[in-house]
Amino acid sequence: MRYGVPAEPTGRSGRQAASPDEPPGADWDPSRHAEDQQSGSRSLRARSGSGSGLAGPDGQTPPQDPEAAAREICLRMLAAAPRTRAQLTTGLRRRGIPDEVIAGVLDRYEDVGMIDDRMFAAAWVESRHAGRGLGRRALAYELRQRGVDEATVAEAVSGLTPDQEYTTARRLAARKLATMSRLDHRTRVRRLAGMLVRKGYGAGLTARVVRDVLAAAGDADAADPVDLDAVLDHLGEPEE
């Protein structure tokens, strides 16, 4: 199984689905993320005809040959995109595959490298940071939502260095600041910091980046402290 870049899920509108984290915000939407995790199973059900021999939705009779059905389901899911062991387990359970069969099939796939949560997590962090500009907190939450264990999550996000986070966060902030030339200092700070918090960047880094980009732009009030509590209070409110 090739784990170069995990496929990024899309919602019903076709746009890239963003991922949730503890802070509220547009980039992390738990309802969209839960829908993403279920999409593989829904597509399998849609492709399975009446003569496929596979189980239907929850509550229907399990397949006559659970192991063969489990292998087929796994191969289809993995052909669509790399998956974690937890995602495959969920998909198989929805199709009525017994847990003992699931464990056996997935163990064999792990042995031959078709399932590798460590490789998945590392590739996910690399692609989502580069493609969406997400910080460690957002990336860690996305991996947890896909069933990756805490040790593997910690290892994957540790590959993202503080310098990488700062560089990406500053690039995002500078790009957004370029669209706010007519806004006052307070509004600039609120919107810049809110965007970075939504992207999963920590409070200290967010404050540093906001000060740095404002100073680089010649903002006379750039050295003023960044009130992140006020920023968090405004998260989720529409921008004027």
Strand fraction equals: under 5%
Broad structural category: mainly alpha
SSE pattern: HHHHHHHHHHH
Radius of gyration: 21 Å
β-strand number:
0
The number of helical segments is: 11
Q: What is the typical, i.e. mean, pLDDT?
A: 79
Q: What gap, in angstroms, lies between the N and C termini?
A: 47 Å
User: Can you tell me the overall shape?
Assistant: elongated
Largest sheet: none
Could you give a short description of this structure?
By secondary structure, this protein is mostly helical. 59% of the residues lie in helices and 0% in strands.
Written account of the structure:
Pfam families: RecX_HTH1, RecX_HTH2, RecX_HTH3. By secondary structure, the protein is mainly alpha-helical. Among the domains are: 48-115, no CATH class; 162-234. 59% of the residues lie in helices and 0% in strands. The chain has eleven helices and no strands. The longest helix is centred in the N-terminal third of the chain and has 18 residues, at 30-47. It is elongated and about 70 Å long. 35% of the residues are buried.
Features:
elongated, mainly alpha, 240 residues, Regulatory protein RecX, cytoplasm, 0% strand, RecX_HTH_1st, Regulatory_RecX
Topology readout:
Layout: H1 30-47, H2 66-80, H3 85-94, H4 99-111, H5 117-132, H6 136-145, H7 150-158, H8 162-177, H9 185-198, H10 203-216, H11 228-234
Helix pairs in contact: 1-3, 3-4, 5-6, 5-7, 6-7, 8-9, 8-10, 9-10, 9-11
